[in-house]
Write a structure and sequence with these properties.
By secondary structure, the chain is of the alpha/beta class. It is built from 9 helices and 13 strands. It folds into 2 domains: 118 residues, no CATH class; 179 residues, Rossmann fold. Bound molecules: S-adenosylmethionine (SAM).
Length: 322
């Protein structure tokens, strides 16, 4: 009973935080919504579908690099490692690595979406019964989801952060996030991190505006989520999906565009939208290997090496906490 009450308190606290973030984001001159809210159960499923779409080259290219260099990467990670994966999603990418690592100490996946983490945890337990798993539901930018690490013994901790999720953070926030990782590592511990690299804008824009319209559904699901969880009344058909490359900031921006003047009610608040006004929902920053190395150093890491595909479209970096 006590556990049920505390989980109800937790979930009402999360709703409160979601509402505050939504109202704050929609009150600015440029309306924004934090991209972490794209990932409820349906959002996570849609993201998995995006990863299979032809236009979305990122997952495919990252997988190719992993397939080609996995033994090398496992060697770099070394024996006895505890893998910590913030934003683990379906935990698929870690499996190959866990299979190849020498005597890993375990796996500590963190994700904001409990449903996907639960299913992935069950699958990993079946496929790799000798690996201890400590799943954490929560926001990886917050200190509390890292706290349990200190209770787990390991020779080495390695943060595994694939999927170019670091690209969702503005450079100063990305630096802070790297500092959060570094704060939970000891000198010599590792970071294995994927970044999408700067490339032709047509290729970039197609990846975030795919011809199968899955990214559009993923983006609009955020409005549906506000409707169902916060009692909003967004009319999804009066918003359209837009994704474009911003060369000055080297990022793809994802927006929802209001197709007419309209008012939307959320928890008793009225939000006014003019025709053509947008809600900025996600950034995906692109890096050069050299600029990412600079960011790694600012965030408390020494770049050690990186692996790329033959067209240098994507990179996986290994760095050491200083
Ligand atoms: C771009 S996906 C990457 C998933 C997986 N690591 C991969 O490489 O395919 C982002 C994942 O991070 C989770 N996520 C996003 N923001 C988060 C946050 N602030 N805290 C915890 N999880 C987050 C989402 O639920 C989603 O599963």
């Amino acid at each position: 009973m006590k556990a049920a009450v505390s989980s109800m308190q937790e979930s009402s606290q999360q709703d409160h935080e979601f509402l505050n973030d939504v109202l704050r984001g929609l009150a600015g001159d440029q309306k924004t919504l934090p991209c972490k809210y794209l990932y409820d159960e349906l959002g996570s499923q849609l993201f998995e579908k995006i990863c299979d779409v032809d236009d979305y080259y990122l997952t495919r290219t990252e997988a190719k690099i992993f397939n080609q260099y996995l033994p090398d990467i496992a060697e770099e990670v070394g024996p006895g490692a505890l893998l910590v994966e913030p934003g683990a999603g379906n935990c698929e990418k870690v499996e190959g690595l866990l299979h190849l690592l020498k005597s890993p100490s375990g796996y500590y996946p963190i994700d904001i979406s409990p449903e996907i983490l639960y299913l992935a945890g069950q699958r990993i337990k079946k496929g790799l019964p000798h690996i201890s798993i400590w799943p954490e539901v929560g926001d990886f930018t917050q200190a509390e989801v890292w706290d349990n690490l200190s209770n787990i013994e390991s020779k080495k901790r390695v943060v595994f952060f694939p999927g170019s999720t670091i690209g969702n953070f503005e450079p100063d926030r990305a630096e802070q996030l790297l500092e959060t990782f570094a704060a939970n590592l000891r000198a010599g511990d590792g970071l294995l991190i994927g970044t999408d690299l700067v490339k032709d804008s047509v290729v970039l824009e197609r990846a975030y505006h795919d011809s199968e319209h899955i990214t559009e559904q993923f983006n609009k699901n955020l409005l549906q989520r506000i409707n169902s969880e916060l009692g909003g009344n967004f009319d999804l058909s009066s918003f359209s999906h837009r994704a474009f490359y911003q060369p000055l900031r080297q990022r793809v921006e994802m927006h929802l565009v209001s197709l007419r003047d309209q008012r939307v009610a959320i928890a008793g608040e009225q939000i006014v939208f003019l025709e053509g006004e947008t809600i900025h929902t996600e950034n995906s920053h692109k890096y050069k290997v050299s600029s990412f190395n600079t960011l790694l150093m600012k965030g408390g890491f020494k770049p050690v090496r990186h692996w790329t595909d033959s067209s240098e479209s994507y990179a996986i970096h290994y760095a050491q906490a200083i």
